[in-house]
Amino acid sequence: MSDTEEHEQPVADNTRRIEASVVTDFSDRMSYGGYLDLDTLLSAQRPISRPEHHDELLFIIQHQTTELWLKLVLHELETARDLLRADELAQALKCIARVKHIQKTLTEQWSVLATLTPTEYAQFRGVLGNASGFQSYQYRAVEFVLGNKNAKMMQIFESDASATAVLRHALESPSVYDEFLRLLARAGYPIPADVLERDVTLAWTFRPDLVPVFTAIYRNPDEHWAAYETCEELVDLEDNFQLWRFRHLKTVERIIGSKPGTGGSSGAPFLKRALELTFFPELYAVRTEIPG
């Protein structure tokens, strides 16, 4: 039977024929599992409840996959920041577009954890000790790269040298927004000098003197299309981030109500206050200035 004839064979007895060209000997070849180091990845889920509770695996995988996505988000945002610094705006927007898709996945992922009932979670919550998502250094690094910096958060990671190094770099580097404003200044937009020279280790706070700059951009989008498009992409980022925070809050309320968090926070009240944090406040304030 020729390869062509074999490829054209229908499925028989609900069994698909393996094509002759399919590689089956991996004794000296790279395999799927080898490339992804699946032995390491799939052995990293180690429930510690005794007897092992059925739902602890869900809880572990939920948070491990979140950390993997956060690793990619951080990778893309740091690259976008570097591209903005190099005036490579189109390439930076490609990175931001990818982050937006990851954010949607992360937000939808809360629905899986929300299948965990209060009774189920209570049966293994005690084994977490003081472990909490509040201690995710990658999440903090993402916040820092987007401009919501808080040096006091560093103390949580003092016992972890590698996490501290990542956060220190994010804290001391300009944010994505800092680099966007510097790009606008190089393009001739009237960005105040003290904005360009600010202490980048501090959280970004609202600058009313930037609103007229963005108002001019929004009133004439065709004339300022590149800047206008970037502004809207950044607004998408913040919207998505806030949706993730809100979904986190509602999932926590659904599972533990008003109980304190395992890491020592007040729990839901603490998460509610996170909704008041912002990355790009001027890009929201400008909407009030657009006539209509």
Structure report:
This protein is globular. α4 packs antiparallel against α5 and α7 packs parallel to α8. 58% of the residues lie in helices and 0% in strands. It is mainly α.
Quick summary of this structure?
The protein has 14 helices and no strands. By secondary structure, the chain is an all-alpha fold. It is globular and about 70 Å long.
What is the average of the pLDDT values?
95
Euclidean distance between termini CA atoms: 72 Å
- The Cα radius of gyration reads 24 Å
Helix proportion of residues, in percent?
A: 55-70%
Sum up the overall morphology in one term.
globular
How many β-strand runs?
A: 0
Quick tags:
14 helices; globular; mainly alpha; 292 residues
Give the arrangement of secondary structure elements:
Blueprint: H1 3-7, H2 32-36, H3 38-42, H4 56-85, H5 89-113, H6 118-122, H7 137-145, H8 161-172, H9 176-186, H10 193-196, H11 211-219, H12 225-256, H13 268-274, H14 281-289
Helix pairs in contact: 4-5, 4-7, 4-9, 5-12, 7-8, 11-14, 12-13
